[in-house]
Structure formats: C-alpha cells, structure tokens
Amino acid sequence: MILKKLSLLNYKNFDSQTFDFDPKINCFVGLNGVGKTNVLDAIYHLSFGKSYFNPITSQNIKHGEDFFVIEGNYEKVERPEKIVISAKKGQKKIIKRNAKAYEKFSEHIGFLPLVIISPSDRDLIIEGSETRRKFIDGVISQGDGDYLQALIKYNKVLLQRNSLLKYFAANQTFNADTLDIYNQQLHTFASVIFEKRSEFLEKFQPIFLDRYEAISSGGERVDLIYKSQLEDKDLLTLLTENLQKDRFSQYTNFGIHKDDLAFEIDGHPIKKFGSQGQQKSFLIALKLAQFDFIKQQRKVNPILLLDDIFDKLDEERVSQIITLVDDENFGQLFITDTHAHRTEDVVKKVSQTYKMFYLDSKQETTDVRPNNL
User: Is the pLDDT of residue 351 over 90?
Assistant: First the structure.
C-alpha cells in the first residue's frame, strides 16, 4: 500500500499544498513550527478520520478559515484508492472513499493501516490507563471490525448506565429491572472485548520482546502485563456485587473501561525505573510490534510515520531503527526532523529510494531531491 499524493487545503498551518511521494522513504525537514508534523498528521487523518494530536475537528481548520480538505491518492493491491476528508465549521465531518461517503466512520478504520511513532507517545508511559487502553483498542481495531463494533456498543451502553445512575440519585428513585438491561448488555460486550484483548496480548507480547531486543543496547528484561477486573469474575457478577458502590458514586466502577497495560523493566514500572533512552526504546519497540501485528492481521504493509525520530535518541540508535525498515517487510516510511543533513546521512545508508522535502515558514516546499537508486 502506497500513498502517492497528498493535497491539503486550509489544514492547520497550510493554505494549499500538494506533495508527490516516493514509494519508499519520504523525509520532511525544516525548523520547528513550519508544519512537518502537520503533514504526518494529515496522513494519519486519512487513515483514522481524525487527528492524532488534536481530535477536535474544528481546531484543525486553519485560523481564519471555515473548512479544511485533505485528499490522499493511494495504490493498494495494484488498485487506485482516493480518500477525501472534509470538515466545515458547524457541520459534520465527511469521509469519502472513491467519491462515496461513509455512513459510519468506523467502516473506514483498518482500510489504510498505519502506525505512528511520535514524542507524544510518551503519554503511554506517564499518563493514566485510558491512554494505554486506546493503544490496545487502536491496534486491535485496525484488524478486527467485530472488536471495534463491540467497543463502540460497550461505550454507548456505559454512558447510558452512568446517566441512569445519576437519574436515580437526582430523583431519589431506583428501578432494578431497567438497570439489569444495561448490566446484561455490558456483560455481553465486555466478554467479547476481554477475550479479544487477552488473545491480542498473548500474540503481541513475543513480537514486542523481539523488537525491543533488536533496538536496545542493554540486557534489561521488559514486559507487558494486561490487567483487568474481569480476570477473576465476569462483569455481570461484578456489577451485581458492587451495586451500592455504583449508586453512591453515580458511576460504573467495574468493567473493561478500567483495564490497563502495565509497562515493566526488570520487574519494575518503567515510568519510575527506566531511563529516557530505555523508555524511548520501549515505546519504539511497542510501535514496531504494532506494525508487525497489523501486518499479520491485514496482510499488507502499514504506512509508518516517524515524527521527530531523533528526539532523545542518538544517531546510532536511529540508524538501527532505519536499518530495520531496510527490507521488503516494510512499506512506505515518512520521517520528520529539524536537521536535513542528519536525516539524509541516515537514509542514505539504506538501499531504498527516498525524497527530501524542505519546508519553510512561508509554507513553500523547496529542493525536493529524490535518490535515484
């Protein structure tokens, strides 16, 4: 799968811009603030229907404008595919594939598999469990539509149950039969989600460990541990046993929306005991394992975005990472960096074609130089 052309109109800091890409490696270089990351975010947007860095649609429209349009021309399984995402203030976002709009955005997830590695991924380590659940959900959903639908339905019922608990408290009333309907629905969807998350971690763990060993220079032992309240009891039992707690807090305290993924190094939380380099290697291994897993599930090479890849990593380790993609197991790669020579020195070491895109504050792309391998 290849992104051949990207066109932006009023997207973030871009007025109007078009890029024609190399089928292998594409590098965006320039000073901070010129829009390098915004280009990657537009590519992410085409795969997921939303921004990676700011999911609020209206805030991705260029300041002073009323709409944005992102257009991507792909080649997938030797067939052209055109994806257009448009959004206008006060109106619903539209996603079209080959001029036909999706009725549900969820139908598009997984069609254009993609993995992004960014400095903001550190949130997976330092933030709460919701961030790590979103990571799990994002990986599984790209290859399993049934999982995504179960997750959407679970979250919808969860909101309804929480609203009902608040209604009971506000009106000093209670209806066990009505609550039981939501309990049964949550139990059904949670059982599917818990089983699929457990199966995912069983397959994902060895892939992750292999990737970490390949990019780390130390002999430390790392681990991923799936933690769920459903490990010992099913959700219906938990909801029944903790009814009074839920009524008091007016919130559903038990369920797969409380799951977490523990990151450990030598048996300790990597958040507290891992160096910056170890944490970065951990996250990159996590994302490369995501790439491998999605490829196995979808039978296609996901697009790989590397945003500010030199952040907190020395050039030698970056070279190791780039070398990992220097074979036919990887597809198209997009890189951003502030130092043009540093980036080109690294990509020259691999036997793949590449293009350098030089961005400036005037939104001009200059000196585009392909490597004529």
Answer: no
Q: Hey, CA dihedral for 296, 85, 90, 103, is it positive or negative?
A: negative
Contact assessment for residue 297 and residue 269, using Cβ atoms and an 8 Å cutoff = no
Q: Which residue has the tokens 């639908």?
A: 149
- DSSP alpha helices (H): ranges in the chain? 36-48, 123-126, 129-141, 145-171, 176-215, 235-241, 243-249, 270-273, 276-298, 315-324, 340-347
Taking the C-alpha atoms of residue 30 and residue 19, their distance in angstroms, rounded to an integer, is 15
Amino acid code (one letter) for 54: N
- Residue 226 scores a pLDDT above 50: yes
> How far, in Å, CA of 63 to CA of 75, rounded?
32
User: How would you classify the pairing of strands 79-88 and 94-97?
Assistant: antiparallel
pLDDT digits (tens, 9 = 90+) for 193-202: 999 999 999 9
* CB count in 10 Å sphere of residue 322: 20
Task: Give me the residue label for tokens 């990207």.
Answer: 6
Asked whether the beta carbons of 360 and 366 are under 8 A apart, the reply is: yes
pTM of the predicted model, to two decimals? 0.89
HSE-up of residue 224 (Cα within 13 Å, Cβ side): 28
Residue 64 Cα to chain centre, angstroms: 29
The DSSP call for residue 11 is B
- Scan for tokens 């990676």, then name that residue: 52
Q: What does the alpha-carbon distance between residue 365 and residue 275 come to, in Å, rounded to a whole number? A: 37
Token pair listed for 321: 């990472």
pLDDT tens string 256-270: 999 999 999 999 999
Average pLDDT of span 310-329: 65
State which H helix or E strand residue 359 sits in. strand 354-359
**Region 103-125 average pLDDT:** 91
